[in-house]
Amino acid sequence: MQEENRLRIENLERELAALKASNPQADVARLEGQLQMLDRAQAQTATPWEQVQLARHPKRPHALDYIQRMFTDFIEIHGDRAYGDDAAIVCGMAKLEGAPVMVCGQQKGRDTKQKLIRNFGMPKPEGYRKAIRAMQMSAKFGRPIICLLDTPGAYPGIDAEERGQAEAIAVSLREMARLGVPVVCVVIGEGGSGGALAMGVGNRVYLLENAIYSVISPESCAAIIWRDAAQSEKAAAALKLTADHLERLGIIDGAIPEPPGGAHVDMDAAAELLKAHLIETLAELKGLSPEQLIEERYWKFRRMGSFFTEGASA
Amino acid sequence: MSWWKRDKPSVTTSSADNRTVLTEGLWVKCEGCRQVIFRQELEKNLRLCPKCGYHFRIDARARLELLFDGDYEEFDETLTSTDPIGFVDSKPYSARLASMQTATDLRDAIVSARGEINGRTVNICALELKFIGGSMGAVMGEKIARAIDRSLAGKHPLIVVSASGGARMQEGAISLMQMAKISSGLMRLDEAGLPYISILTDPTTGGVTASFAMLGDLNIAEPGALIGFAGPRVIEQTIRQKLPEGFQRSEFLLQHGFLDAVVKRTEMKAMLTQAFEFMCR
Question: Which residue, A32, B190, B213, B266, is most buried by CB atoms nearer than 10 A?
Answer without folding.
Answer: B213
